[in-house]
Amino acid sequence: MSDSYLRGLFGLEGRTAIVIGATGVLGGAIAEGLAQAGAKVVVSGMNPERGDAQATRIAELGGEAIFHPVDAVSKASLEELKAVTLEKFGSIDMLVNCAGVNSSVPYEEITEEDWDRVLATNLTGTHLACQLFAPFMAKQPGGGSILNIGSVTAHLPLSRVYAYSASKAAVVNLSQNVAREYATQKVRVNVLCPGFFPAEQNRKILDQDRVANIMAQTPMKRFGEPEELVGAAITLLSPTAGSFITGATIYVDGGFTAMRF
Ligand SMILES: NC(=O)c1ccc[n+]([C@@H]2O[C@H](COP(=O)([O-])OP(=O)(O)OC[C@H]3O[C@@H](n4cnc5c(N)ncnc54)[C@H](O)[C@@H]3O)[C@@H](O)[C@H]2O)c1
């Protein structure tokens, strides 16, 4: 196996990645993976303590990272993130939209506030970042690549998780549309849809009954480990490995979306 061949295919040296939501479980794992593949990483999110800890961990692993806070639903905050990244690293070659929130109640109990909160973070936040960074990347000589985080619920709606499922289905649709828009401008846009990975935003919804149902419908009969997202993320983000992939959705779900009784 040739190291230089693999490095050429998957190496991200000299490239900068912003990971919004890298303060969380999945975003943190993706940020670490990108850094270990050579990228300079801006860890971003709303929790400075977590963000600093994540950037420190990346440094301990031998990577380069800074933390800068962002509120994904604020245009001004995203603009600031862009400016700080450019000042520090000089380019923005990759963007991962991994911020997300959830809510789980019977359909008739969803409040307007909760609906708006989930749609705002998961869908509008993704849209605002794409709208800011895709045209910017298109003006860079090397273009860029955006990875939006969907969910298996984009494809198979999950009971009690109405706003979340709708938001993730819309993220897939939006990503395809933005991918089409920038396809000739060296900007690729793809979606990674995780299956079930225990984390903060879904702890409350993973009760005993639901876990049993999930396992019954997961051919691999287990939850995912956050690191298991990294290979697909690097493939989609890499300008070499992913060069002809845009508008695609990859499920990393232990077979959940392939399961039919
Ligand atoms: N864990 C899973 O099983 C799973 C499955 C499918 C999809 N996802 C998606 O993966 C992504 C990451 O989720 P996770 O499981 O790591 O959850 P998590 O709760 O650990 O991380 C989510 C992060 O997003 C941040 N965030 C929330 N609102 C924000 C905002 N307005 N601006 C900036 N950051 C904000 C939170 O502070 C948190 O750090 C989410 O989009 C989630 O929907 C997760």
Automatic annotation (TrEMBL):
Key words, A-Z: Oxidoreductase
Entries under PROSITE patterns matching the protein: ADH_SHORT
EC number(s) recorded for this UniProt protein: 1.-.-.-
Record Pfam families: adh_short_C2
Ranges of residues in domain Ketoreductase: 15-155
Keyword Magnesium (UniProt): no
Enzyme class, spelled out: oxidoreductase
A GO molecular-function descriptor: oxidoreductase activity, acting on the CH-OH group of donors, NAD or NADP as acceptor
Superkingdom of this protein's organism: Bacteria
InterPro entries for this protein: KR_dom, NAD(P)-bd_dom_sf, Sc_DH/Rdtase_CS, SDR_fam
PANTHER family listed in its UniProt record: 3-OXOACYL-[ACYL-CARRIER-PROTEIN] REDUCTASE FABG, SHORT-CHAIN DEHYDROGENASES/REDUCTASES FAMILY MEMBER
Stated family: Belongs to the short-chain dehydrogenases/reductases (SDR) family.
Protein name listed in UniProt: Putative oxidoreductase UxuB
Name of the gene encoding the protein in the UniProt record: uxuB
